[in-house]
Each structure stands twice: as C-alpha cells, then as structure tokens.
Amino acid sequence: MAEMRDAVQNADAGAPPDTLNARIGVLTRREVEARLLAPLIDALGARFGREAVVEVVRETIVALAQRQGAELAGQMGGNSLPHFADSLAAWTQDDALQIELLQADDEHFAFNVTRCRYAELYRSLGLGELGALFSCNRDGALIDGFNPDVAFERTQTIMQGAPFCDFRYRLVRDAVPSAAASGQSEPPAAA
C-alpha cells in the first residue's frame, strides 16, 4: 500500500492543483471516471486477471483519496470536524446526496445518506458492482488524509442495498501526546 501511495504522489508531482470537483461537481466527475475506468478494468482484467486489477485500482483509489483528503484540509483552512462538515457541499452538489444530519460538533459528525445519486448513477451504467470501489471505497481514506485523528465508521451503504448509509466520524484524542505532537524531539525522561 505504501508503494501505491508513493506512486500516486510521484505521478502528480508538479501538477497544478485539482479543481475539477469545484468546476464540474463530484457526481459528474465520478461518471466520467466510471465511463473510463470500467472498460479499462475489463480489458486489463481479461489480460492480467480481474481480481488483481481490481485490487490495484482499489489501492490506487485509496491512495488518491488520502492525498485528496490532505489537500481538502488545506483548501478548507483546517482539519477539524466542522471544517470537514463544511466540505460536504462538494459531495452534495447537484442533489447528489440527501443527508439527514444527526450530530455536528467539534468532536462528532454523524449523518445518514437517505438518497445517493452516486449509487443510482453506477447502477444506471450497469456498474453496480464497481460503484463501491469507485466511490464508497474513498470515504475512510479521505478522512484519514483530512485528519488522521478522526475515526470513521460506516456499517451499511445504499450501494450495498441498505436503505441508507450511516456515516459516523469521531475525533480520537491520544491519551499521551506523541513527542512530535508536543514539539519534543524525544519522550520526556521518567521521574
């Protein structure tokens, strides 16, 4: 996985910032990506084995999402849960998601997605099996890149056939701050 993350970082070295989501919306972006990736996965799968190809695609998407999460924190001006909550506008653009907000504060962000046009899109393209790979697969990695101190839990998705997706984010604070986080070069000496 580290190799994939490094390959993704190196591939974009020197590239201009990715502003595609802001210009065309995430839903349209995912459609363009799906229409390109699905036939590539099929062709590469026929040559090299579908399972191996899907695994490389999964790892690549996770690495991209982690990087995009870090970039998003910079664009939002911080990596707190309220900053992350504000970023949801990009994913809900064009009525892509209908959300029922359950909790939003400095340490928790919880909501249910009650309608997902991403799932509808993938199904309409005959790509239901790849929808989770292309979209749902990103969610945990995105928040990990945005703020690694936020735990993410989701037990079900509309893409998998559930009536709603349950997104739960929680800020996790270390009981003992690390030396790097406290600005120390080494742990404090025992008394």
Structural write-up:
The protein has 191 residues and is of the alpha+beta class. The protein has a single domain (2-14, 23-174), classed as Muramoyl-pentapeptide Carboxypeptidase, domain 2, CATH 3.30.1380. 56% of the residues lie in helices and 15% in strands. It has nine helices and four strands; from the N terminus they run H-H-H-H-H-E-E-H-H-H-E-E-H. A four-stranded antiparallel sheet has the order 1-2-4-3. Helix 1 (2-11) packs across helix 4, helix 3 (26-48) packs antiparallel against helix 4 and helix 6 packs antiparallel against helix 7. It is globular. The model is unreliable at 175-191 (pLDDT under 50).
Main features:
about 190 residues, alpha+beta, Muramoyl-pentapeptide Carboxypeptidase, domain 2, 4 strands, globular, disordered C terminus
Would you summarize the structure shown here?
The chain has a four-stranded antiparallel sheet with strand order 1-2-4-3.
Helix-strand blueprint:
Layout: H1 2-11, H2 20-24, H3 26-48, H4 50-76, H5 81-92, E1 97-104, E2 108-116, H6 117-124, H7 128-136, H8 138-146, E3 150-153, E4 165-171, H9 179-182
Antiparallel strand pairs: 1-2, 2-4, 3-4
Helix pairs in contact: 1-4, 3-4, 3-6, 3-7, 4-8, 6-7
Give the strand content.
Answer: 5-15%
CATH architecture: 2-Layer Sandwich
Total of helices:
9
Number of strands: 4
Report the sheet with the most strands, covering strand number, pairing sense and barrel closure. 4 strands, antiparallel
Q: Which runs of at least 5 residues are low in confidence (pLDDT < 50)?
A: 175-191
The CATH topology name reads Muramoyl-pentapeptide Carboxypeptidase, domain 2
Mean pLDDT: 86
Physical arrangement of strands within the biggest beta sheet: 1-2-4-3
Radius of gyration: 18 Å
How many structural domains? 1
The CATH class name reads Alpha Beta
Shape: globular
Give helix % range: 55-70%
The N- to C-terminal Cα distance equals 40 Å
Determine the structural class based on helices, strands and strand pairing. Answer: alpha+beta
Helix-strand pattern: HHHHHEEHHHEEH
